[in-house]
């Protein structure tokens, strides 16, 4: 296995940038199916924090990424070469776009019941919808009697 293959996986994951953030670091572990009982999401996050060193730093470069792979290999009990080979074989990060429309949720011709007619409403056309329809607001005389 050549390190250029691993470098290309790193470049693909960072979309051409020289540094990688923690989210992408964890995504590589997930998408390459490295996570198991020995290497968990928590272990990946902790290894990122360990290799980046300073807490104010938010990204790592390729050399630091390789140090992180050493930590992963140690946790899994395999060699760094075997781990690198697994990453290269799985192709690194898998980018997935937005999923298509769901048939039953987005197709309004399939709606049933109240929603078929536009959904529930709080204003009924034939029934009382305001207080002025129930109260007589005409003026009364001095004694309170209406004529």
UniProtKB/TrEMBL annotation:
Superkingdom of the source species: Eukaryota
Any one annotated GO CC term: microtubule
BP terms from Gene Ontology: microtubule bundle formation; microtubule polymerization; positive regulation of protein polymerization
A Gene Ontology molecular function term of the record: tubulin binding
SUPFAM superfamilies the UniProt entry points to: EF-hand
InterPro entries, sorted: EF-hand-dom_pair, TPP/p25
Similarity comment: Belongs to the TPPP family.
PANTHER family linked: P25 ALPHA-RELATED, TUBULIN POLYMERIZATION-PROMOTING PROTEIN HOMOLOG
Name the record gives this protein: P25-alpha
Native source organism of the sequence: Pseudocohnilembus persalinus
